[in-house]
Specification:
The chain is of the alpha/beta class. Helix content is 19%, strand content 27%. The chain has one domain: Vaccinia Virus protein VP39 (Rossmann fold). The N and C termini lie far apart (41 Å). Bound molecules: zinc ion. Zinc ion binds next to loops.
């Protein structure tokens, strides 16, 4: 597409790099890697939304967010094995890296560093977290409604779950449930589709999301904000970042 041949001058909301961004991949969400930190549009957009909530208008990148005094008291849980945020947020006293591991061996291998957590049944107290971060996780969760209910339970009032999910452009009206899991029994309703997980394994996509995700969040007690960053480039308008706020 012609728009993806365009370069632009910008600021990386992850590492703070200022300079020229060029397209390198075909996927609009995963193009325009930062020349310095290599993180692509979807991560940088997610970083920008987190900065909107926690940067107090005073910081322009994750590189200086973690050093901001207001962050010291923030209780943050991030579901990730990689990505741009861990290296910055791990400096904070109340940051916890989490992941849903598939095996006991993996749980043991990461003990003391990455907490094994099922997002639909979290080991955190009610009203205890300021921020939950997931990046392309929710599409792999069989019961999204339960995940949102758990987020609503553990977030403080005003706390936020900032997440990315792959979505078509424009966002379809309905969710497409590709598979269900009931009492441990997997049922495929659509041809199975997989992504590669943070531990380099194939993981099944349960849901292709549509606007209906707002209703699911609302039913759980979260108000869903959908953000399209306002970059002067059509490609940037193809990526959405979501923030589900506890009210
Ligand atoms: Zn960068």
């Amino acid at each position: 597409m012609q728009e993806q041949t365009v370069t632009f001058e910008g600021l990386c909301s992850v590492c703070g790099f200022k300079g020229t961004f060029a397209p390198e991949n075909a996927s609009p969400r995963d193009c325009y890697p930062c020349p310095q930190c290599r993180f692509t549009l979807r991560y940088r957009d997610q970083a920008s939304v987190i900065l909107d909530f926690f940067g107090n208008g005073a910081v322009e990148s994750f590189n200086n967010l973690a050093a901001h005094p207001s962050m010291k008291g923030m209780h943050i849980v991030e579901f990730a094995m990689g990505g741009p945020f861990i290296r910055y947020l791990c400096r904070l006293p109340h940051y916890q890296q989490a992941y849903f591991f598939e095996s006991e061996e993996q749980i043991q291998a990461h003990q003391g560093k990455v907490l094994h957590v099922d997002i639909t049944s979290m080991p955190f107290a009610n009203n205890s977290l300021d921020l939950i971060i997931t990046s392309d996780v929710l599409e792999h969760v069989p019961d999204v409604q339960r995940a949102f209910s758990e987020c609503a339970r553990v977030l403080k009032p005003g706390g936020v779950h900032v997440f990315s999910i792959p979505v078509k452009y424009p966002i379809p009206k309905q969710n497409l449930v590709r598979a269900t899991m009931k009492n441990g029994v997997l049922d495929h309703r659509e041809p199975p589709h997989y992504h590669i997980s943070g531990t380099k394994e194939k993981v099944l996509v349960f849901t292709d999301f549509g606007e209906e995700i707002s209703t699911l969040a609302k039913q759980a007690g979260l108000r869903l904000m959908v953000s399209q960053r306002s970059a002067p480039l059509a490609t940037c308008l193809r990526n959405y970042t979501f923030a589900a706020i506890k009210f």
